[in-house]
């Protein structure tokens, strides 16, 4: 461990943390009105949010656009230099622009500013200089606090980038909450990867119909053993005459009762009554939590008292939720 390196890292964290604290104070104070105006501007849009910036601000702008898009606000990034060479045509009259520049004097943004003014496209500016070219052109001005960079020369964009990114996240989340954007909505934009797996529902992965292991109350244990072995889930549900689930028998139960004249007994003698169940609309990740907590490998899915499916730990592994 290098003590100078650790000390340097701690100074960087402290400087950037101070920048975030200053930004939080600004949004709660002098920026409150403009922040609300930015949210209402975007919410009123019929089109999309176009986010732009140059250099490090461009990288931040790209991420902000991606965050907006993934949380229910249609958005994409336009590079200001490419915009000056034809990509301005991607921006429509129903859109709004978020332009990011710490100095507010980024030359490459000039074409974007002129285009927004010409076609009356709302311009939301994120800059540290309210009286800059960008600041003067803005319909909504989100003026960042002028906090020092973590760089000892106060040159490399560090604190400034963190504040730009955090403000973009704040806008995205405020819009998400204002729209009542739910986990179900989120899953539409995130169908793949581990995030998509966590947002999947039990109904997406459960086995139903003839794949379900079920026996009726009063059946001999030979039938239960057949259901457990043929369906491959390590258990079988037990239903009453109305089709309601009243119990479950697992392969662990078979092992525990093997010496107790198992084949001569009925399922009612062996089953565990009122078993743990889940509903079809439960998140797959929550079902996995139940399996882990109870140290079991499968859950019967019910609607009311009726079994409609079964989900196994292996299904969650294949999905990626585990």
Structural write-up:
With 322 residues, this protein is α/β, with parallel strands linked by helices. The chain is 46% helix and 16% strand. It has helices spanning 3-28, 32-43, 56-70, 80-83, 110-118, 133-137, 159-179, 183-189, 193-199, 202-205, 221-231, 251-256, 267-270, 284-294, 313-319; strands at residues 49-53, 75-77, 96-100, 123-127, 140-143, 214-216, 235-239, 245-250, 272-273, 277-278, 298-303, 306-312. It has a five-stranded parallel sheet with strand order 2-1-3-4-5, sandwiched between helices. Strands 6-7-8-9 form a four-stranded mixed sheet. A three-stranded mixed sheet has the order 10-11-12. The longest helix has 26 residues, at 3-28. It is elongated, with a radius of gyration of 29 Å. The two termini are 35 Å apart.
What would the principal axes of the Cα set say about the shape? elongated
Major sheet: arrangement of strands: 2-1-3-4-5
Total count of strands: 12
Strand proportion, as a percent range, falls in: 15-25%
Termini distance?
A: 35 Å
Radius of gyration over C-alpha positions, nearest whole angstrom = 29 Å
- Helical content band: 40-55%
Mean pLDDT: 89
Q: What series of H and E elements makes up the topology?
A: HHEHEHEHEHEHHHHEHEEHHEEHEEH
Largest sheet: 5 strands, parallel
**Structural class estimated from helices and strands:** alpha/beta
Outline the low-pLDDT stretches.
none
Number of helices: 15
């Amino acid at each position: 461990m290098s003590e100078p390196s650790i000390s340097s890292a701690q100074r960087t964290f402290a400087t950037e943390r101070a920048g975030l604290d200053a930004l939080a104070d600004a949004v709660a104070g002098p920026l409150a009105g403009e922040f609300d105006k930015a949210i209402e501007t975007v919410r009123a849009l019929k089109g999309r949010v176009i986010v732009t910036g140059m250099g490090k601000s461009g990288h931040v702008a790209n991420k902000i656009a991606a965050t907006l898009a993934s949380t229910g606000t249609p958005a994409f990034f336009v590079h200001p230099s490419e915009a000056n060479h034809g990509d301005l045509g991607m921006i429509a009259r129903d859109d709004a622009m978020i332009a990011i520049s710490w100095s507010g004097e980024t030359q490459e943004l000039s074409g974007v500013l002129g285009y927004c003014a010409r076609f009356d496209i709302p311009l939301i500016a994120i800059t540290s200089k309210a009286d800059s070219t960008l600041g003067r052109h803005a319909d909504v001005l989100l003026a960042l606090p002028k906090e020092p960079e973590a760089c000892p020369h106060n040159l490399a964009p560090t604190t400034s980038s963190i504040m730009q990114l955090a403000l973009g996240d704040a806008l995205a989340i405020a819009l998400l909450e204002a729209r009542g954007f739910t986990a179900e909505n989120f899953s539409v934009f995130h169908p793949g990867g581990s995030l998509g797996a966590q947002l999947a529902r039990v109904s997406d992965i459960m086995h139903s119909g003839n794949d379900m292991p079920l026996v009726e109350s009063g059946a001999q244990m030979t039938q239960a053993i057949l259901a457990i072995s043929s369906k491959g889930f390590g258990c079988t549900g037990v239903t009453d005459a109305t089709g309601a689930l009243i119990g479950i028998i697992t392969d662990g139960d078979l092992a525990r009762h093997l010496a107790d004249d198992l084949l001569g007994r009925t399922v009612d003698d062996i089953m565990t009554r009122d078993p743990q169940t889940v509903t079809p609309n439960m998140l797959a990740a929550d079902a996995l939590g139940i399996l882990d907590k109870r140290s079991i490998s499968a859950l019967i899915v019910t609607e009311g008292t009726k079994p409609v499916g079964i989900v196994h730990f292996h299904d969650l592994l294949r999905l990626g939720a585990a």
